Amino acid sequence: MDIVDAQVHFNLLGTLDAGVAAMDAVGVSALLYDEYWAFDAKSRILPGYELPGGAFRQVFPLAEEAALRYPERFAYLVRFDRRDPDLDALVGSIRTVPQRKALRVVPWTPEGFEQFAEGADAPLFAAAQRHRVPVFVLLPGRTRLLHPYLHAFPDVPVIVDHCGVTLAPGRLHDDRLSGFDDVLALAQFPNVALKWSHAPRLSGGAYPYPDVLAMLLRVVEAFGPQRVMWGSDHTQSRDHHSWAESLYYIRDTPELSSEEKGWILGRSLRTVLQWPAPAGTSGA
After folding, report:
1. Does some domain include residue 282?
2. CATH number at residue 206
3. Coiled-coil segments, which residues (predicted)?
């Protein structure tokens, strides 16, 4: 099966060769590299530098190196400041730079969520629509904030990060998972997909997380498997579960068909990113 991980901060795994060995051990064919070193004092994601006007321009040297050395195994996403004077050209680069595939919007701070709600990220979505670029967006428990953007920019492929809910351990156990109905409601928008990452953290029990699997089945029913994509975010989730555990409870369950698994575990991400599988690779 062609298994493609929709998010790993791969640089945090150590050397490139060590990370590739870890992929092989788990059975991951390829992944979307999200380069992240740390946050600076202003809560901006590094690496990057400040422009004279105050905008922060992020750079992706390690993701670029991985994509150039192993183009069949790595694509990567980028983040750009909406205030960058070269915003349109930067977003356009996602269509021209090898293996650069998508944009990610991460409001992150209370101020950032407030600005997002006020429409401040419209320039990013407008540029994404002009250049036909997919946008990943992190809005835990706040997915209603997406609706104005989805109405204004219906041609932008939008992927909601991390199940769309607040990732507090054991949230499913108390049966009061705030925001999940709002996530399911996004299925009405045909351009929206859901990144199924960090879900085991929500479980009230141990592997193979039957309560989380039941939640996934509801998501698949609402969106269809073609709009659900698995991601581990392994470097951020390994305090709770292993990379293998994040994958195998889906890969090995009899409650999903082989075709559904093929979409969720790789084909949906490849389709949205327009990243073809290598010749001879099976999607199921």
Report:
1. no
2. 3.20.20.140
3. none
